[in-house]
């Protein structure tokens, strides 16, 4: 997920995206434990996407407070 895509979302949409990504991360980790993971590199990608979402959400909140 690109930062520009996240910046075009509202705060509520970003929150929903974070929840979806956390569920995806949980599922990937569960697959990894059972040995069925097809793409283990997705763990790292999902974690980075979650971090991007949190960072951009913080930016949006701080912009709102400064106005």
Folded structure, characterized:
The chain is mainly α and 67 residues long. The chain has a single domain, classed as Helix Hairpins (Orthogonal Bundle), CATH 1.10.287. It is 81% helix and 0% strand. It contains three helices and no strands. The chain has helices at residues 3-7, 11-34, 42-66. The longest helix is centred in the C-terminal third of the chain and has 25 residues, at 42-66. It is elongated. It starts with a helix and ends with a helix. The mean pLDDT is 93.
Fold topology:
Layout: H1 3-7, H2 11-34, H3 42-66
Helix pairs in contact: 2-3
What is the string of SSEs from the N terminus onward?
HHH
Q: Give the termini separation.
A: 28 Å
Look at the structure and give the CATH class. Mainly Alpha
DSSP strand content: under 5%
The CATH architecture category equals Orthogonal Bundle
- The best one-word shape is elongated
* Average residue-wise pLDDT: 93
| Low-confidence residue ranges | none
- Largest sheet composition: none
Helicity level, as a percent range? over 70%
Total beta strands: 0
Number of helices: 3
**Helix-strand category:** mainly alpha
Round the Cα radius of gyration to an integer and report it: 14 Å
Q: CATH fold name, please?
A: Helix Hairpins
Instruction: Estimate nothing, just give the exact number of structural domains.
Output: 1
In short:
The chain has 67 residues and is mainly alpha-helical. The chain contains three helices and no strands.
């Amino acid at each position: 997920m690109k930062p520009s895509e996240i910046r075009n979302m509202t705060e509520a949409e970003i929150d929903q995206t974070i929840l979806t990504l956390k569920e995806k991360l949980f599922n990937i980790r569960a697959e990894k434990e059972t040995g069925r993971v097809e793409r283990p590199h997705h763990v790292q990608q999902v974690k980075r996407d979650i971090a991007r979402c949190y960072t951009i959400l913080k930016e949006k909140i701080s912009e709102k407070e400064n106005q």
